Structure formats: structure tokens, C-alpha cells
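Entry 14. Structure prediction run on the chain below.
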Amino acid sequence: MAKYNTLLYYCYSTITDAEQFAADHLRFCKSLNLTGRIIVADEGLNGTISGTPEACKAYMDAVHADERFAKTDFKIDEVDEPSFVKMHVRYKSEIVHSGLRDPNMINPQKQTGKHLEPAEFLAMKDRDDVVILDVRSNYEHSVGKFKNAVTLNIENFRDFPAKINELAQFKDKKILTYCTGGIKCEKASALLLHEGFENVYQLHGGIIKYGKEVGGQDFEGKCYVFDNRLTVDVNQVNPTVISTCFNCGKTTDKMINCANPECNEHFTQCDECGWKMEGCCSDTCQTHPRKREYDGTGYYVKVPQPVNVTKKSKV
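Output returned:
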């Protein structure tokens, strides 16, 4: 039996007084000794949490018992240790930052692309009239993506709306969107429909569910996740590695955060360079006075840091 579970989930459902809900939800999660990160907004919930199987079951039961979240789809991973150190529940304007806050224009509760179950996605993805669209950020698709997928040069999902014009060439195709767990596709597919794309689909449950239900066929590399694992295996059918070490160019699928907290870039780095560079992306970061101690994982408990407005993506 697994020592711990890690749950990935989201639910678009209106929450009245979401700020108070977030405070109450944090107390509930702590009562179950869960760790993780949950975002609460007026539009719903988005979370990744970790705990014992018993605690995770109690959490899922409680969420499903609330009629607002009764249809929440939990992706469950068995892990040897909790995937987080602390428990955070925060109120924000959106459960995934997109900048698409006008519910009269984009509202996943009313209109999104057609949801495809993993087996349906697998059956459609190689057709000539289909385009597979990755709606994730650069650092995510750099370490893993679907074979032949169209990727966008974006540092954050909020950059996605500005890229719509680049996709105009695919308006006569069926667009199959995908992301980690499905949440970004809800708004991405809704925006595509709003912009005149007629045949828009999305992978229900995202990459994680695809790996669990159909073996992850043709997903190249690993899937970036937002916890201390950083990446997880997906493909059990025809796995491959597509990423290389940022420093030396050697093939590697290890993704880390730069040890300089004012940089904190996501990038791929082999173990040899990791120890040599002390988990840093550059000599400048390696000599930074606030550099964190590198333990080989490249994961650090997040603490508030000054915003580095000059930071540029190194991926």
C-alpha cells in the first residue's frame, strides 16, 4: 500500500465569499495533516495536495460532498513521501492566471472545447485534419510534450491570448488542446472558440490522466508538475527523452529551479553540472550572496522574494 498520495484537481464552480472559503479550507486541510498548494477564486478551485491515503480520501469525500464541487475529477499519484513541505490555500482573482477575467467573454462553466477522454484523444491525434496544441509554458514543454505538437513561445499562461493570431493558419483544422491536468485548456479552448475557431477539443484530465489511462503513448519526455517532484514519468509505451542540459548540452530530463532565489528559473540540468554549478544556471547566479544550498533535487520551499523585473527566460 502506498505511503502517501498526491492529488491533482480543479473545478470551475462559482464560490460565494471565496476569500472566507479559502481561510476555512486551509484550516480543514491542516486538520487532515495535508500539505500542498490550493488556489481559491470566485470561479472555483485549483489544487495539488499530498498526504496519507486515508487523509486524501477524507479530503476527496468532503469536496465531492459539496454540490458545487461534486463533479471534481481527482488525478491520484502514489508517492513515497509527501510532495510538499507546507500547506497553502490562497485566494486569487483566477484559479489559473490567464488575464481572461470577463465571464461574459470567457466562462468555462458555459462554453469550452469538447472534452476528449484519453482514449478518444489517442484515436484522433494523428489524423491529417488534426493539430495538437500545447497551451503550457516554455519550461513545461521543453522537458516533455506530445509528438508533433504545436508549442507556443510563452513564459506564462497569461501570454497565451496574445498568441491567438499565430494559430490562425489552423482554423480549418480540428484543434486538440492539452496541458498538465486540464485546467488551462478550459480557458484556452473557450478563447479559441470565442476567436472563431470552430472545431476545438481538449484532453480531459490532461497529460496526467492520459498517462494513467492509455499508457502515455507518444508523449515525449517527462511532464512538469507543480510540486517538489518537478517532473513525472508519463509514457509507458514508447518513452524517450527530448530535453538537454542547459549548461553542457548532454541529454537529460532532470528539471530544477535555479538555486539563486532572485532568478529561480526552471531549466534542465544534468547531475554532473548540477553539482558543479551548485544548482545554478550561470556563474553569476552561483556567486549570488543569497544562493540557496543545493541538495541534488533543485526544489526549494517557496518563500516571498523580491520581484526580479529584469529576469529573462533561459530556456
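The chain has a mean pLDDT of 93.
Filed with the rest of this week's runs.
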